[in-house]
# Entry
Amino acid sequence: MTSNYSPVLPVDYKDDHGIKEFIAEFFRISDDPEKNEAWVDFYHDNGTFVLNNTTSQGREDIRKARSAMWDQVAERKHEVEKAVPARFPCPKGEDCLDLTLFGKVHQTLKSGDTRSVDWVSHGRLKRQGGSNDRWQFAYYRVYLV
# Structure
């Protein structure tokens, strides 16, 4: 199974604000079943994670969703093909960035079957303390296609 965590950004996007590194680390951790807490740390305390039609709100719900993602999966590798970051107005004192990602995930199930699924996701990233803090998801939704 191969993985590629470094997406292509738009050609006219000059400053990635550490986005490529954030994405690469998020998906490296996402593909490791032993890294549940590290994965949850990518979300704000009151963040939202949506997968399919299941919404998880807050760190405890997100932690449960993360654990459930591995119930039937033995191995998972993401390919992150493209990232489209965009700036929209955000509340005063916050540094925000919207992010749309395109990719594919390859999975080996515990049954031995394999599957590959295309996905698109949308996230809203925030840095509460400004540009020196690390990015975290305030909202992240994954669409499997």
Remarks:
- DSSP finds three helices and six strands in the chain.
- The domain at 19-144 is CATH 3.10.450.50 (Nuclear Transport Factor 2; Chain: A,).
- The two ends are 20 Å apart (CA to CA).
